[in-house]
Design goal:
The chain is α+β, with helices and mostly antiparallel strands and 206 residues long. It is built from 8 helices and 7 strands; from the N terminus they run ββαααααββαβββαα. The protein has a 3-stranded antiparallel sheet. The protein has a two-stranded antiparallel sheet with strand order 1-2. It has a two-stranded antiparallel sheet with strand order 3-4. A hairpin with a 6-residue loop joins strand 5 and strand 6. The chain is rod-shaped, with a radius of gyration of 31 Å.
């Protein structure tokens, strides 16, 4: 009350409340000898790497706070208050978060994956999946193919049918008609060779 304190002062290293010594000395500076020792150490990325080597489960938040590393981690990178993300960046020498290879947005850190996601969203991931499948069909057949900008689950084929020089076809059907041996017979064009309608047992009974 004399010094108008709202509560006990905090340890300079780990942030824990300090014990009151007496009216002459007031509160100490450190909560333990370990914190006093760690405060004399200059913490940087190299120190963090060396500290984390071989510690495994000892990288608990309480241990990091006791050594002063936690405060360093949450302030190390702008817009990154997740200490686990900061550890990942330091270990992998990433000054900034990586970006989505499709749209260029900054990727989010995933604690479940213990790293960054490959894509920012499912939409970008599906684009890469279609591009991969398209490249596979193109390499296998030599056909002139491109993604259909109007339908996300379709490819556009050029000059693969004598009657229809350009047509759009479902990705799955396109894969089956070009890559699967059992479907290769017949024209790829869905206009000349419409996909078979799958009949269920219930429809047969009716």
């Amino acid at each position: 009350m004399y010094h108008k304190l709202n509560g006990p002062e905090l340890c300079k290293t780990c942030g824990k409340p300090l014990k009151f010594i007496n009216f002459n000395e007031g509160y100490g500076t450190y909560c333990s000898k370990a914190c006093e020792l760690y405060d004399t150490i200059t913490i940087d990325d190299e120190y963090v790497r060396n500290y984390l080597i071989g510690r495994g489960l000892q990288n608990h938040i309480s241990n990091l706070k006791a050594t002063g590393i936690y405060n360093y981690l949450i302030n190390r990178f702008p817009n990154c208050s997740n200490y686990k993300e900061a550890i990942y960046r330091i270990k992998n020498n990433l000054e900034n978060a990586p970006f989505c290879p499709v749209c260029g947005k900054e990727l989010k850190y995933s604690e479940a994956l213990r790293g960054y996601r490959k894509y920012c969203c499912r939409k970008c991931e599906s684009i890469v999946e279609r591009q991969t499948r398209l490249a596979s069909i193109r390499k296998h057949t030599g056909f002139d193919i491109e993604l259909d900008p109007k339908h996300k689950d379709h490819f556009i084929f050029h000059n693969c049918c004598e009657k229809h020089k350009k047509f759009s076809i479902n990705v799955g059907i396109a894969h089956n008609r070009t890559m699967e041996d059992r479907y290769k017979s017949g024209c790829i064009c869905p206009i000349c060779n419409p996909p078979e309608v799958q009949t269920t047992k219930i429809e047969l009974i009716i």
